[in-house]
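Honest question from a wet-lab person: if I give you the sequences of every part of a complex, can you actually get the arrangement of the whole thing, not just the pieces? Trying it with mine:
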Amino acid sequence: MTGLVTGLAIEDVGVRIGGRTLVDGVTLEAPRGAVTGVIGPNGAGKSTLLRAIAGVLPHAGRVTLDGAPLPRPGSRARARLIGFLPQGQDVHWPVTARRAVELGRLPHLGPWQSLARADVAAVEAALAKTDSTRFADRPVTALSGGERARVLLARVLAAHTAVILADEPVAALDPGHQLAVMEMLCDEARAEHRAVVVVLHDLSLAARACERLVLMDQGRVVTAGPAEAVLASPWLDRVYAVRFGQGRVQAVPVVTPVRRLDVEECRREPQRHAS
Amino acid sequence: MSARVPFAIGLLAVGLVGALGGLMIGYVPYGPLAVLEGLAGHGDPVVTAIVREVRLPRTLLALEVGAALGLAGAALQGLLRNPLAEPGLIGVSSSAALGAVIAFHFGLMAWADWALPATAILGAATTTLILLMIARRAPGTLTLILSGIALSSLAGALTSLALNLAPNPYALNEMVLWLMGSIKDRSMNEVVLVLPFLIVGSGLLLATARGLDALTLGEETAQTLGVHLGRLRALVIVGIALVVGAAVSVSGAIGFVGLVVPHMMRPFVGHQPSRLLIPSALGGAALVTVADTLARVLPTHQEVMVGVLTAILGAPFFLALVLRHWRTMP
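Yes, you can. This is the full assembly:
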């Protein structure tokens, strides 16, 4: 057990697939009540790390929740603790949005048990939170990308898990719904005391929504801590090979790429740049 | 929700009417009253004998075989998340047929009546075990389908070999006729023989309902919803081997039922894989009963085999489905 009071603790987690190391010795903490953002360039191992924690990929190392080891991957007990929103929007049959969200309640149901009143309430609440009630009776496959993304997020919210892992939950959304989804995840973390881990590419959104950030590169954690500290880290520019400009617009933090760095600049020892 | 009960009653009604038709229609047609009297055993002794000994086993087998094929098709399509999947596709049907042809080839039926079903179930089980081993070592839907196609081809080739090396013209004739698929001239023995396999297999398949629903969101998400994928695959494959192996052993190869029926039922159950299982079993039972009755009344000088009929109707249906789904095919 680390110094963490409650939440998700990942210790020395590694993932190897086909002889390649995709995640190497990652240790990080995602406390309850906070949104932890995982950032880093493409191929940094962010999604792989999330999938390992979700129990989809076999991994080395230890993952604990509130100090206790997690139940076996693929078990209903684990599914009741960890909700996972993967990248992509696989829905293979044209079931209605409501039926898709109901799947989130599966871990809470016995093999032959049907939805109880509490399950139905959880489903309706999740649909309402994600602004999806309007199209709840339409086939998921007939929805727009943004609508479908919200329905799939509602599926995760309906499960009421202690941990929510979301892999780029706002990738398909317009700016309004991006903000709404991030606010909703913050609300889940704070009001419901859940540990929320989100992979994000939009650093402004990360700065705005995440209390803590984890910067990953090449399967390792480069730096982690409070969001401001990670965004101020000299490693940020090097890892992305981009010079970021940072500031505030009407009190809202903005982190935007200014120009790409060439190989020479990346190799140089990192220096603080004016922000 | 409220639409589900009338829908199920409608399906049952179609099956019952089909079954009654199956008892009434034949070389000599009887009225419904005569049939019911014959069933109860106090009508004309000739009618009683024909209804009880000839038409009842045939009708019951049609219900059993149809239910098995419909249920197996619905479960397989749910597992593979592909509306084009069919038990024939993963080689279970053709392996069961191979087992039966081997029994014909060596004249095993001279030893015991149950040799034919036993070899067919053995054939289906062998293929199923191989598929299971492949599925465990290399998970993924594509692997399963491709290995199924390979095993299906192998079973087909070995079946041809058995025909090729047939000991005598009589055995060859018997094998070819059987391969066409028919439930003509069967007795209550076969009806009873199929039943336990059908019950156990159906139980296994119905137990997968939740897992199949979860698979709607893909294998990874299903896993994070607490579905044990390996166990789910094993249940479906063993369940299908039991019901299809038993069905094929008494009826020969009756194709396309497992493809057509789930497709027809899907809109009625909101495309939910779990709710598709029982309606597909009922629908399959109704379809094979109706098809078998149709095969009897077609004005041909030799009775048309029901398997031939379903293939003639089913293959164009399959093609139409492929053309409709070609954009979404991987």
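Two things worth pointing out. The two ends of chain A are 37 Å apart (CA to CA). The mean pLDDT of chain A is 91.
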